[in-house]
Specification:
Elements (H helix, E strand, L loop, with lengths): L13 H40 L1 H4 L7 H35 L3 H8 L10 H8 L9 H14 L5
Helix pairs in contact: 1-3, 1-4, 1-6
Length: 157
Amino acid sequence: MGEKKSGIKGKKTKVELLKEHLLYAAGKYSDYSRYESSLASTEEEYDETLELYNMDIWLGNSEGTIRDKAAEMLRVTTELFYDLADNAARELYYVMREIVELDEDSQKKICGVVIPKDIFTEKEFREMLSEWYEYEYVQEDALQAYLEILERWEWGK
């Protein structure tokens, strides 16, 4: 796919659009993953607090207290953000799926690497994504962190 602009003034090329989609998808994944990770840590720490100070709640023998409700809401919220992060990962995968369909030059312009489409699978993409631990808040930083992981990954090995 070439870099030619369309005849319509200001219309973006496919490469430009995919670069933009990659920025948004990487940023979204980073944000939701950071929130989910933070909530999971809070949930774990709160569970330890309940074990120490509210054994009845920790053992599941007390219902209806504000501490019990807090534990339940924290669990539910953590699950929701896990689902949001998973949906964002799926969106990022689909953007990458479009990118690997492009020619090598276009792939390099978008993400700095070339991934042969015949070895790009969702399973391996998810494995590669699991190497991303430091979630950035700023979109451009999130994209840079993602691209560094993408560049280090050895596809098909």
